[in-house]
Write a sequence for this structure.
């Protein structure tokens, strides 16, 4: 869910980041310098345009760099994905609001482990119980 998700970064810095610079320049073309100047001067339209671009890019172009798993409600499991877009990381898990942004994988992973501890722990307990059942079966 994206409704309350915010990008915690300076858009000027993002636009100049080595991993993103080419894509940002290609999208905005020769309008980019004017948009960045307007953004830095506090122009709301420039902010909105950059925000929309980076939000779309974050959702569509990010790569999953780490995945944790939590216990689902029906003896299944669900992925908790840590995604990276340029210098930003965020957490995505089906049925939960997006979390982030973070400036390092370590911070994102730590937050994911903390926020989803209950689900991660339940899954570990389920797996241990399944192993115990399997061992008892083999003993018979």
């Amino acid at each position: 869910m994206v409704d309350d998700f915010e990008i915690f970064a300076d858009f000027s810095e993002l636009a100049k980041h080595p991993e993103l610079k080419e894509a940002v320049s290609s999208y905005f073309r020769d309008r980019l310098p004017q948009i960045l100047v307007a953004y830095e001067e506090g122009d709301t339209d420039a902010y909105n345009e950059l925000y929309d671009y980076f939000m779309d890019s974050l959702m569509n172009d990010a790569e999953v760099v780490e995945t944790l798993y939590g216990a689902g409600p029906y003896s299944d499991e669900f992925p908790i994905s840590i995604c990276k877009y340029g210098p930003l990381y965020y957490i995505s898990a089906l049925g939960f609001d997006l979390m982030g942004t973070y400036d390092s994988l370590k911070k994102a992973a730590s937050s994911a482990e903390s926020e989803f501890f209950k689900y991660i722990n339940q899954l570990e307990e389920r797996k241990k119980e399944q192993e115990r059942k399997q061992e008892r079966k083999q003993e018979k």
